[in-house]
Amino acid sequence: MSEYTVALVAHDHKKPELLAWVNKHLAVMQRCKIVATGTTGGLIAEETGLEVTRYKSGPLGGDQQIGALIAENRLDALFFFWDPLNPAPHDPDVKALLRLCSVWNVPVACNSATADLLVTSPLFLTEDYLPTKPNY
Question: Is 67 part of any known ligand binding site?
């Protein structure tokens, strides 16, 4: 695959977990084009040296910006470490983002266990697997 674009997003209480996960899979992430919401993207770039395209903070529209990438078939996978125990004011945006992944058949991981399985799949970062995109 010429350019595999992944989005990295994390709620405040999950940012350390996502950073640890990115560092654990740094070699894989170096092969991806990375987009992220504002604060999360800044932390990832600062800690890992990865190039990250940063959108707005989630509550300020960043979730919708990433959702637009999904709707435009410009995102290959979403890693969204969301915090189910701390409701956020932008919970409807989070639900909409996860819904778009289901609508457009985009792989999504919401915790480190699922994220580990996704990036260690032999199909990740290969041209051997092209997910079926619905034709609405």
Answer: no
57 is in an annotated binding site: yes
Asked whether residue 39 is marked as a ligand-binding residue, the answer is: yes
Please report, in tens digits, the pLDDT of each residue of the chain (136 residues total): 458 999 999 999 999 999 999 999 999 999 999 999 999 999 999 999 999 999 999 889 999 999 999 999 999 999 999 988 887 777 888 899 999 999 999 999 999 999 999 999 999 998 888 888 898 8
Residue 63: active-site member: yes
DSSP 59: G
Q: Which of 12, 63, 91, 93 is catalytic?
A: 63
Backbone angles phi, psi at 94, to 5 degrees: -65, -45
For the chain, domains (ranges, CATH) are 5-119 (3.40.50.1380)
Pull the structure tokens for residue 37: 């919401």
